[in-house]
Amino acid sequence: MPRTVALTHNLDDSGLAAGVQLADPASYHHPLFQRSEPGRCEGSVVFYFAAFTGRESEPQTPISAYDDKVLTWEQISDLGKQYEAARILWSKARLRLRAAPLLRQAAPLWEAWTTAKAEMERVYRAFGETGDGRWRAQILRLTEAEQAAEAAAGAWDEIARQLAQLAADQIGAAGYDDELPLAEVAQGLGLDAAGWHIEHVDAYTDRYWSQPTPLRALLAQQVDAQRQRLVEAARLAGDPEAAHDRRA
Fold first, then answer.
1. How far apart are CA 154 and CA 197, in angstroms?
2. For every one of its 248 residues, what pLDDT tens digit does the chain have, with 9 covering 90 and above?
3. Burial letters for 212-230: b for 16+ Cβ neighbours within 10 Å, e otherwise?
4. Cα 88 to Cα 92: distance, rounded to the nearest angstrom
5. Which of 43, 50, 75 shows the shortest CA–CA distance to 61?
6. For 34, phi and psi rounded to 5 degrees?
């Protein structure tokens, strides 16, 4: 099935398009290029290509075209626009190809994280119904739930980092105006990724060694808040030993 990309570039106003061209640049066309025609918007061009698989090399205007003394600069410019359109389509096909297996792996990891987080919150809420003599046992349950949530968050952040890198690669090739959201790719696979926590790749790579990854950082904030509330509750209840245990 042909793919198309419309680019809002000025059309060649040299008159070559309507007259006799000095050279035929067809030998430099992208292998999947089919045709081009004026777009709906004034000055735009629509390029038609056969379907990209994402396995092709990144489309780049052939260097030999710049060295061809027969081609005009207008023809070379048109080739550049064609390859730009090809690069956009290729980048999206490559993202779909590379992200598909990771997205399928990510789905159960996100479910595991949400389950672990919900369990941790359930155990924390249970303090409101826990008798004074059973607080230490409940603290142990909470600590175990926190550790499970930490492990689930770490597993998620690792696959989120890989997906974020693929998304950044696609934007790097196509530009932000032609970004293909990961959620859209997931939807094409029958997955609902709308609520998945995936930040820009820099959030996973540009960190100090001691900084947690994004989801683990959010979890740490929640754990700290829960512990502070427990410390305060113990203090108000006149149990300085319990308060000291939670600070430790």
1. 12
2. 556 565 544 444 444 444 444 568 899 999 999 999 988 887 789 999 999 999 999 999 999 999 999 999 999 999 999 999 999 999 999 999 999 999 999 999 999 999 999 999 999 999 888 776 688 888 899 999 999 999 999 999 999 999 999 999 999 999 999 999 999 999 999 999 999 999 999 999 876 667 899 999 999 999 999 999 988 887 887 665 554 544 44
3. bbbbbeebeeebeebbeeb
4. 6
5. 75
6. -115, -50
